[in-house]
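Exercise 7.
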Amino acid sequence: MQASDAVLARIRKLLAVAEHPATPPAEAESAAQAAERMIIKYAIDEALLAARSDVRSKPEVRMIVIEAPYASAKRVILSAVARAHGVRVISHTGQAARATLVGFDSDLRLVDLLFTSLLLQAATGMRRQARSDKAFRRAFLIGFAYEVGDRLRQARSEAVAESGGASTELALRNRDHEVADVLQEHFPRLVTSRISVSDGGGLVAGRRSGATANLTSGDHRLSGGRASIARSSS
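Solution. The predicted structure, written as tokens, is:
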């Protein structure tokens, strides 16, 4: 087993403790926080290791299928997670359930873990709401994504400052440039799109739920089924 696989295995074990219904709340919170710290440190360590290595890995292009319902809203959650980990997400017109990700292997694996966890948490959060109509639930997922995205960016910024500041920032910026180059190579004609929300109450409820979400990669709140990132055949 590679070192990176061993770290991911440890993260999964911590998450299993955090999400198990029989785990006492204090122990679950401790396990979740330990996993969150490990995820952030793992991502930064991988970037610094790559920067010092003579053998450079390259960004990869992978496809992900997002299960219905609310595939387009779930894709907003995916984008929030991806951006915080240096991964770019491309949506495909007329194919809400399909997206392409561009990023380094270690970052793609973290995105896969965290996206799956957050889908589970969001679904659980929706089930606890008094309303269940489509407009509310779609807005809930988008609000959840916005709040989680803000928290992930803040956590990432704090971790960078603690791990070396400028040198770490440079390593991550270099990775971002490499990802952007591969993105341009495979998708030279990208256009920016916006997503609209028609239910303010759902948006507020989603942000409230996202404010307490476990930002590790497994928790006891959402649904959506596992969406694994597959290597692109292109």
